[in-house]
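dude i think i finally got it to work??
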Amino acid sequence: MRLIFDKPNNSALNVLRRSGYAFLRKDDRTGEMSFVKRVGGGDYPRFHIYTRTSAKGSIEVNLHLDQKKASYEGTTAHSGEYDNENKWLVQEAEMIRAEFSQ
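look at this
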């Protein structure tokens, strides 16, 4: 699920940390940052976000739900859900929109 925030009042790092997300890493080549938020007591399922900030200051958030760890060694493929038919993704997106609007 893709969300775009034009000229937010705060950085993606600050907003997502305030929303319960942990910072994973930043890709030095693309500038893309990765965050996760656990849904239960284990590592999976979890919400996973990639963010990118444009030159004009807008923030693009790509949100999905990782159902399990990658199944095959050396790959990043996993059982992820990306669309707005998943009620958990819709609720999480609404919470993130609210946090970015503060």
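The beta strands are 2-5, 22-26, 33-38, 46-53, 59-66, 80-81.
im so relieved honestly
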